[in-house]
């Protein structure tokens, strides 16, 4: 009912009651006084009831389903932000009913309107208002969905994906305001609600990755930092035995690699002078920092990681023969290395990451890192072979030379370093004879190929400047 009609109805009722009470008050008989007090009591009750109906939001039900949808549609379509924000509060009392009707087994008109409302609520302005200014409605929506997340058909998927996306990319969202150790972060209400429920993480909603299909281009450094924070939080829950599926982390790390790739490609379109001032550069720094933080988390939690099982090293595949937490993390780290190696500006990020995974001395390495290292060796060996035999990009070989350096294979201390040098020694000349420009792309910018002396020469950024020392590898056909 329109607000104006409601107000006129209240005023009319008050006027009628006032006329009647005045009449009986004038005729001061016992009967008149009794009726006078009775009417006054009725007047107060009517006013309270009407004010309650006036002030309380309309609740979605079978009788008003069409009118409720049209009213919400009108407000959201208007784009008036104050009205939309008011609507985010008013739908609170209807959330449970809307989701219940939407997921009924029996088809009905009410169900159609309920599903249409959920689709309508996916509007970007509406979702932003919820995640920034209405924690009660946001909590009710998520709590209702999580409680029923094991349904086969997730009709609210797009709506929930939008909400989680804006929780990450909106700087003032409820999730972003949950800073570690401070304010709302001491309670972590939404982080715990969304990413602390193993059943929800495995559900069709996939809260760690599902929403990333909307967009990764809106991710900034703050969003990336928060994303790694929730991955670590979910990983901690996994290690406590709340979950037994590593797939969610495999997917999360792969999406993070996609974010790295997008930012690397943005940097490739910029000049060297623009690189360090670019938002994409800050995003890459955030990704590098997040990965290093995750490795430190793994090292610090080494005592609670499960025992590493034997895996098939020939024809290695995460999906076929290594579906466990070590396989998921190793494959994710490899994808990140491959993404960083697309551009030379990512080599330093790879160096910092590999320093954590291949520490010196080796006897200080923890069991989880050792298990990740074993799998990463296999993935890197396959890529080195692709780089030097089939000349396939990205040039991971160049980033590994940048990190490990050049020397004769027998002087290398690490298995992966020895493999790299052996492959270079035996295959680089043939690769250069085949397609010279591609073969040279497999070297970092500080390394050159001396065809006359048949050797690779690297001028290390520090040792060359200080002592004019070079690193060399003699090649053979």
Q: What is the topology?
A:
Elements lengths: L2 H24 L3 H26 L9 H14 L2 H10 L4 H8 L6 H12 L3 H10 L1 H13 L9 H13 L19 H7 L2 H5 L18 H22 L4 H22 L3 H4 L3 H22 L17 H4 L3 H16 L6 H11 L9 H24 L5 H9 L10 H20 L1 H6 L5 E4 L4 E4 L4 H5 L3 E4 L3
Helix pairs in contact: 1-2, 3-6, 4-7, 5-6, 7-9, 12-15, 13-15, 13-17, 15-18, 17-19, 18-20, 19-21
Explained architecture:
Among the domains are: 53 residues; 156 residues. It has 23 helices and 3 strands. The protein is elongated, with a radius of gyration of 32 Å. Strands 1-2-3 form a 3-stranded antiparallel β-sheet, covered by helices on one side. It is mainly alpha-helical. The longest helix has 26 residues.
Order of helices and strands: HHHHHHHHHHHHHHHHHHHHHHEEHE
Largest beta sheet: strand ordering:
1-2-3
Helix- and strand-based class?
Answer: mainly alpha
Helix count equals 23
Shape: elongated
The stretches of 5 or more residues where confidence is low (pLDDT under 50) are none
Number of strands: 3
How would you sum up this structure in a few lines?
By secondary structure, the protein is an all-alpha fold.
Question: Which keywords apply here?
Answer:
3-stranded antiparallel β-sheet; 3 strands; 3% strand; mainly alpha; 64% helix; 477 residues
């Amino acid at each position: 009912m329109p607000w104006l009609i409601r107000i006129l109805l209240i005023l009319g009722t008050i006027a009628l009651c006032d006329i009647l009470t005045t009449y009986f008050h004038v005729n001061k008989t016992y009967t008149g006084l009794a009726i006078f007090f009775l009417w006054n009591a009725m007047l107060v009750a009517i006013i309270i009831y009407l004010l309650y109906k006036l002030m309380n939001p309309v609740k979605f039900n079978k009788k008003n389903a069409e009118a409720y949808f049209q009213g919400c549609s009108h407000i959201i379509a208007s784009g008036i932000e104050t009205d939309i924000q008011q609507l985010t509060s008013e739908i609170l009392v209807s959330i449970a009913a809307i989701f219940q009707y939407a997921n009924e087994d029996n088809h009905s008109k009410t169900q159609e309107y309920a599903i249409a409302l959920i689709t309508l609520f996916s509007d970007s302005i509406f979702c932003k208002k919820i995640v920034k200014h209405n924690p009660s409605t946001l909590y009710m929506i998520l709590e209702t969905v999580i409680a029923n997340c094991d349904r086969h058909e997730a009709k609210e998927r797009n709506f929930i994906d939008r909400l989680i996306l804006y929780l990450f990319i909106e700087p003032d969202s409820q999730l972003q305001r949950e800073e570690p150790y401070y304010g709302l972060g001491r309670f972590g209400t939404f982080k715990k609600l969304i990413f602390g429920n193993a059943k929800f993480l495995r559900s069709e909603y996939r809260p760690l990755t599902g929403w990333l299909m909307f967009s990764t281009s809106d991710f900034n450094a703050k969003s990336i930092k928060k994303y790694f924070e929730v991955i670590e939080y979910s990983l901690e829950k996994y290690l406590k035995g709340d979950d037994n599926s590593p797939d969610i982390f495999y997917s999360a790390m792969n999406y993070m690699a996609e974010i790295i790739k997008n930012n690397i490609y943005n940097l490739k379109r910029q000049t060297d002078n623009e690189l360090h001032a670019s938002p994409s550069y800050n995003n890459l720094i955030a990704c590098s920092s997040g990965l290093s933080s995750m490795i430190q988390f793994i090292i610090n939690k080494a005592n609670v990681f499960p025992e590493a099982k034997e895996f098939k090293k020939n024809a290695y595949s995460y999906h076929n023969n290594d579906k466990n937490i070590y396989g998921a993390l190793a494959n994710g780290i490899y994808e990140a290395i491959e993404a960083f190696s697309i551009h030379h500006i990512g080599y330093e990020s790879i160096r910092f990451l590999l320093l954590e995974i291949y520490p010196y001395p080796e006897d200080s390495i923890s069991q989880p890192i050792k298990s990740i290292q074993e799998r990463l060796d296999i993935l890197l060996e396959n890529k080195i072979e692709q780089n030097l035999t089939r000349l396939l990009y990205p040039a991971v070989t160049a980033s590994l030379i940048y990190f490990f350096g050049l020397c004769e294979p027998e002087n290398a201390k690490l298995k992966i370093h020895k493999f790299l040098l052996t492959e270079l020694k035996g295959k680089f000349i043939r690769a250069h004879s085949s397609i010279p420009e591609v073969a040279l792309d497999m070297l970092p910018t500080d390394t050159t190929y001396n065809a006359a002396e048949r050797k690779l020469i690297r001028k290390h950024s520090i040792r060359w400047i200080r002592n004019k020392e070079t690193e060399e590898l003699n090649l053979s056909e």
